[in-house]
Structure formats: structure tokens, C-alpha cells
Protein: F-box protein At4g09190
Amino acid sequence: MTDDDGRVVELPTELVREVVSWLPASTLLRCSRSLASLNRMILDPHFVNLFQSRNSTLCTTILGFCCDKVGFLLEYHHNDNDKKHSVFAHELDMDPPCFSQDNNTNSTALNVHEAVNSCNGWVLIRSKYSVDEFDVLYTDSLHLVNPVIRRCFTIPCETGLWFDDNHKPEYVLGYGPKTGRYKLVRIVNRVFDVFDVALDGNNSENSWRRINDFDYNQYDLVGDPVMLNGGMHWLLAKVKSILRFDIDKEKFDLLPTPLFTKHMCIDSLYVMGGLLYIGAYNYKFMDFSLGLVIWVMKEDSSTWSCVSVIRDFCHFEHLEIVQVFDGGKKMLMMSHSKKNLQLYDRETGERTTLIMRGINPKMRKRMTFLRFDPSFLSLNNKI
Structure:
């Protein structure tokens, strides 16, 4: 900046860091590609922590991904005065060079790409390759992509490992805060395999190993898992419990769910503000008049408290609550069936569909939505 005499004045680094930490991820993404000084600043782990604490209170970031490897950074600003409740979309490069480095030379690409889950800014992308002429058997190609810093590498799968639609594998990427390591879990035929991820890209298919300390055969996993405090959490069918996998210790344990009446059914798990939430509905005669009841697990990890009820609810919407703000009066939700984002007002019971600016409506209907925490670490390691 300049003073009254036109002389250039350099602002203190602490003041610049304070101002920059309030900017949305999309703005930092654009500026960091041309400003070396900004690059150096946001590499500082202290800035990363500051940015995440500030950004989460002002803006919710979601990743939208299409099967043809088109990705968008979706931002909803909580204090936006726009009465139309807009979500602003910024296109990302989700097709970096590592996608052309697959070793499936004996397979045929099916052009089926799926964003499985996201952890600390890394997105796990799964691509299917046919291994027979009828496209019945296939093998997977796995990639970790950080669309913000444009880094990508391949996770090798064992040679000769084939699947079909009746034995479809599930993958989950997680982070162990005590060991500081990322791990990938694969579940197929009730068998758990774990892969230690090396972020330098030096990964080998020999790193896959079997986890045998839990009797999986008596449990059925329901829905998508959620990550919280270094653990992967799944809902279990029939027994109404939560299966937790400690990433650091590689151990399993069971957590209780709220005590429901006979006809209450658990819909899904959520994570907000470092706490675990459960949504449940009344399924007697498909009666949804009671709405979606939201419970939160207390910090003792053994008791639950009912915090809210969402009226006018239909189970087939597959709602996921992303964030609560404005003093708990409003909830931001993703509808995975309707492919949109909604704002729920707890006082009035009204739901407003948010307008996505910058996305073609036809493309939006093909999207998968993922919760996404932008990570600006290792910006100097661009591909």
C-alpha cells in the first residue's frame, strides 16, 4: 500500500496474516498462484490452524464432483446478505497427470470415477477398469488428489484383485493424529484391509495388510462412515450400535446409540463442531410425521442428547447436516438424492434451497457432494 505521499509502505507480516486468514479458500487459491509471498505465508502451520478456525465460522466449503472428473469448490458464506441464499462455485482441476499414469495396461477404462471421501484436503478418487469382455468383472484404480495444491498420486492395488457389483469394495481415507499418518481402509466381503499412505508418493501394493482382531461376520455396516478424533465410525444394522476403528491403534470398539422406541430407525451419522450426531426417523407405516430427530453424543462418548427435529422430512432425501450456525438457529444440509444444498430455519421450520451460481443445472444433477476442508499445506510441491 502507499502513504499520502505516494511512498510504498510494507505492512507488518502479523497484520497481513490476520487479514488473509479471513479470506475464503477460493480467493487464496487464486492469489497463491501468482503471489510468492502469499505462498510462503500460508505454508506456515500456524496460518493453517488460524485459517481453519476463522473460515469455518464464516464459510462452509463443500466439494462437488462429477463422474467425468469435473470438480467444484462450493462456498456458502454464513453472513451473506444475499436474500437468494447463493452458493458460489469455483471450478477445480480434478484431472491431474497421475490419472494418465495408471498401470492397468491389461484393462479397459470404464470412465467411471467416484469421489469416495475427503480428509484434510485430500480427496480419494476411485476409477473402475474392466477386466473381461462383458464388463462384469473390474479392478479399481485409486488416486489421492489435493485439488487446492494440485498434488496427486496413485494408491496401488494388489495384482489380480477383481470385483463385481455383488462384491463391491468400500474405501475410506482417514488420518491418525497421534502418529500423523494417513491410512486407507478397504472393506469387501466383511474383510478389512488397511494401507499406510505415504504422501511422498512412494507407495507399494505390498503395504496392504489384513485386520483380524474383530468378528465382522455378525455385523452389517450401514451407510457411509464419518471421521472424528482419529476414528472411522460406521452405523451397524439391527444391533443399533456404532463401530469405531481407531486409526492410530488399528483397533475396533463399539459405541452406543440413543435409546429409541420400537419404530425409530437411525438414518445416518454426521460430524459437526468436533461432535458426533445421529439422525433418526419414525418408520412405522412410512410415517414421517415426527420428522428427523437429531441427537448429539456428549463428550463422555456414552450418552446422547436430543438437540433438534427437522419437520417435513422424507427418508428418501438422504439428508446430511453439514453445519449449524447463527446461534444454532440455522442448519446447512446436503440432500444427496435431490443433489442440492438447503438451509433449514429451526425457528420457522422452513427449508430454503440454495442457488448454486457457476454450475450448469444438468451438471449439478450428476454431482456427488463431499464435506471438504481446504488444505494449503505443501503449496510449493506443485505438479
Q: What stands out?
A: The chain has a mean pLDDT of 77.
